[in-house]
Amino acid sequence: MNSYYNPVHTIEGAGSLNRLPEILKEMKPEVRRVLILAWSREALKHPAFSELKEENPELEVRSLVFQASNPSVEQLFEAYEETKEFAPDAVAAIGGGSIMDVGKSLCCLYGKEIANLEELRELICSKAFGTPRARWIGIPTTAGTGSETTCWATIWDPEKDAKRSVENHENYACAALVDPELAATMPVKLAVSSALDALSHAVESYWARGTNCVSRALALQAVRIIMEHMDGLFEGSAAAHEAMARGSMLAGLAFSNTKTTACHSISYPLTMHYGIPHGTAVSLLLAPVFRLNASCTEGLEELLDALGATDPEELEGRIYGWLARSGQPATLREWGVRREDLPHLAGLGLTKGRADNNPAELTAEKVQRILEEIYEERPVTLSA
After folding, report:
1. What are the residues whose beta carbons fall under 8 Å from the beta carbon of 308, sequence distance 6 or more?
2. What is the arithmetic mean of pLDDT over 210-220?
3. Per residue in 236-292, pLDDT tens?
4. Pairwise CA distance, residues 154 & 174, whole Å
5. Other CB atoms closer than 10 Å to residue 381's CB: what's the count?
6. What is the Cα–Cα distance from 4 to 149, expressed in whole angstroms?
């Protein structure tokens, strides 16, 4: 039985951020205090924020700049401590996936007494958030995470060698303002990594155990858009940036229902322990996992057609080429990963809710073989 649900009001296109005052006006009278959570002070200079105060003088608006990538439990707790007394009714999160992860997490924390880090960990692990006290609006400045359309957030816990998920099905965004103009100034390296993250979201949504007909349709469209416009990112093409913003949003809508699979599961410790950018890490894993999943993937030919590839090897070559052109290593060895660490990383790569969502069964041994594939320059073929 197929079932798809996503309540996010998505507004996509150049100038979308200018709709923020209108969106918040529609949320009154419930919304009186608004927190603007931004990646940088420069982002706060956008005319939409000054217009927000002019058009809604009765709103109390505060801002917080949060610049950490891959936010940790400690950093989330600090943001909570800094804003809990203000107790916003709405959070407008403008930035990449990290900013939106913090923004949507805060909405689940307000109204609760959280005395220390351990209590925060316990709350996240229990998932006992209840109805969020605040609502949020996602405003992406990168084109890759799709976080503006999902109800979960990734929070890292390096002290416990773990990746946490703040997940609440009542915590979808009130609105997503997908404005490609905000992503147009991304450096090429970040633009490529972000686009490859979105590509992975779409492909993993397509073959996930939790997939459905709507998610598959969204995923195929996202894959086509992203693959057709990757080269334009290297030329600084405005059309490419606009396409990536749309592709990322569609991929987000797809995996908002299905979650991700082995690529994301295996990538988490690579990012946490070696600092490999998230989108880069998942893209390195896409072809090896594709080889593993091929015999278990319904509609394999349609997926390959959308990718513009005849097999996973051709896809792998294109991914390696994009990484090289953007100045990023394409092997774990080049990223500084030690071969003797692969067994430990393989064990950490079996993330609940992601590894068990993969169509082909994953074991620590299979994950280690996948890591071996991308360790050196010449990968070997992995069969299911």
Report:
1. 227, 228
2. 97
3. 999 999 999 999 999 999 999 999 999 999 999 999 999 999 999 999 999 999 999
4. 19
5. 9
6. 13
Q: Which amino acid is at 372?
A: E
pLDDT in tens, 7-56: 999 999 999 999 999 999 888 888 899 999 999 999 999 999 988 888 88
Report d(CA 353, CA 72) in Å as an integer: 20
State the pLDDT at residue 379.
Answer: 42
pLDDT given at position 380 = 40
Query: How far apart, in whole angstroms, are the C-alpha atoms of residue 301 and residue 304?
Result: 5
Q: Buried (b) or exposed (e) across 112-137, using 16+ Cβ within 10 A? A: eebeebeebbebbeeeebeebbbbbb
Domain limits of the chain?
9-182, 188-373
Task: Flag whether the pTM goes above 0.90.
Answer: yes
Tally DSSP H helices, then E strands, for the chain. Answer: 14, 8
What CA–CA distance (Å, rounded) separates 276 from 333?
12
Task: Return the pLDDT at 1.
Answer: 65
Mapping DSSP to helix (H, G, I), strand (E, B) and coil, where does residue 189 land? Answer: helix
Phi, psi for 11 (deg, rounded to 5): -125, 115
- Order of strands across the sheet with 90-95? 9-12, 175-178, 135-140, 90-95, 33-38, 60-65
Report the half-sphere exposure of 210 (CA within 13 A, side-chain side): 17
Give the separation between CA 270 and CA 332, rounded to whole angstroms: 9
For residue 118, give the amino acid letter. Answer: E
Domain 188-373 has CATH 1.20.1090.10: yes
What torsion do the CA atoms of 342, 347, 349, 350 make, to the nearest 10 degrees?
A: 150
- C-alpha 278/C-alpha 190 separation (Å) is 10
9-182 CATH:
3.40.50.1970
Asked whether the beta carbons of 111 and 55 are under 8 A apart, the reply is no
Residues whose CB is less than 8 angstroms from the CB of residue 49 and which lie 6 or more positions away in sequence, other chains included: 20, 36, 61, 63
- Rounded Cα distance between 147 and 143, Å, is 10
| Residue recorded with tokens 């951020």 | 17
- CA 166 – CA 109 distance, rounded (Å): 10
The pLDDT value given to residue 377: 74
Length of the chain: 384
d(Cα 321, Cα 64) in Å, to the nearest integer? 38
